[in-house]
Amino acid sequence: MGVVDRVRFQRIGVAAGILALVASMMAAGALAHWQIVNERRTSCQSNERKLAIALLLYSQDYDSCLPRPEVRTGDTWINWMDVLGPYTDARALGTCPANPGRGARSAMSLAPYPYSYALNNRFYGVFAQGPFPLDNLEIPAQTVLIAETGSCGAGAGLREPAYTDTSRGFCVYPSPHESRMNVAAADGHVVSIKIRHYRPDGHNTLYGRMGGSIYNWNGGHPNGRTWEAPLE
Known about the structure:
single chain; alpha+beta; 5-stranded mixed beta sheet; two-stranded antiparallel sheet
């Protein structure tokens, strides 16, 4: 092998070594990224699961009913997280690491609401005056209980303590976990779903599908009509 060939061979070896090093660094970076993503998603799911269990315990003490998302008592606004104190440390569970709400205020009352989660408002005053008992829900495993809530613009902004429908906008109901959102169903289990839509076209905003097997209400069925095809 001549001098020129040896130099060329050495350069090829150096280049291959550099490429291998770069590939190794990229792989390590990707692995670190996914570890962070998984840790945040798992932490958020754990929060929702504990909050859902607290809500189910609350319902056992209040004739199968859930608290209002937010209510005014004198000069003070009380949200659903505030009333779960006897069942869990809700405020410590209120922050998703991928979707923090520090400094946020309620879009309903403008009272402080520094949390990452919203309660399905259909459990109070939507189908009838007052609360809707959990025991009367026919398909709890396919009904959203807790969803993630978010805000638009700079800073924490306004957040919704009550979940209405994802068609209200991507910012209000975000997908902070690699384009997916964690949801707790009314039977207490938690799933990661890809939101089916952020547009109301062809979507039933009262009962329709949120994503995966989770619907806004009762598996997509009006109460007492579960034999019909679900409303999407």
